[in-house]
Amino acid sequence: MTYTVDDLRTVRKMHNDKKSLVEVAAGTPMGRLLRQFWHPVALSRSVEPGKAVSIRILDEDLTLYRGEGGEPHVVGARCAHRGTLMHTGWVEGEHIRCIYHGWLYDASGKCVERPAETTAGSAGIGGYPALDYGGLVFAYFGSAPAPEFSLPRKEILETAERATFARKEQWPCNWFQMIENSMDATHVSFAHQAGIVGAFGKAITTTVPALKYTETEAGVEQRAMRAENNVRVSDWTFPNNNHIIIPGFTQRDPWVDICVWMVPVDRENAIRFFIYSAPMQGADAERFTQYFEQYGEYNPADYHEELFDKGIYPTEQLIQLTGAQDYVATVGQGAIADTENERLGKSDAGVVFLRRLFWRELDALESGGQTKQWRKLTKPAELPHPPVPT
Asked: What domain range includes position 57?
């Protein structure tokens, strides 16, 4: 797809109302749209059975706790009695009790006991469906019944004898900038080409790619073609997941599937959740896991000053370096980018495609029409081949 100058100006003009895309609280247009989907909210390993933690997702403070049976539950942040934070209480079976006066809530957020009262009453703090998958806790925040839980390339992740690892990064910028970065294939040639080591480095050059974006039943297929045998393909799934494939960490390793979600915390903060997966077993799988246990906890925001003020980047480790490069480029636009004064061009075809897609869905939602019924890909994009070694 090609874009004229008028196309780019039109998209920029209608996109100047950035508020519509970054405001995600309940009741806002984007907040309503995003609440139609499952979202990762935490690392599964971050909350043990019988424990509770506070989380903030979609501009809403919440409590995530894991019942004594091991199931995750998401309920409101504060007790309905006098507003005490629920994560400071304790878990009893699959329920959670407030530390202040002992009000007890079930996994749906309904109060089932008030020790100082004769009945439980009708109070509640709200609750949302939650589940574990691939090392992440997912939750559904919509008012309609939860749709069937699904993931892009779910069958691949569930293939036997695969090594997997989940991680997250929390960034001080709005979620839509993260999304736009995932749809910007040209930046890979520049932001990620310097300092990349190992097999991945051979897949990246400063050659500006030919771009192709195709809407699918699940989202967008993105192709960046730099040479006949150097094609970067990703399946972007609406509203906030990108699936890419990268070469292994050594020449002998299989290629790695990466599913990354970009989830709003609020209008100025977001989290990137990842599931890395590769067809490995035995000693290779152990090495894969050890690699991520050593380097996968890296969060660029913890090194904000070093990155922006001193230009100190992680070295040699792919997982850390690419994250830092994306962080500097994306967070460097500001918490909410100034789109009014941007100058879009041919390299921004993916960004334009994405903005049009969201504006179409938001317009349908606000007019009372039907948004697209997004479905799991029936035929995922063909995996790219490794670039020819040089």
From this structure: 38-140
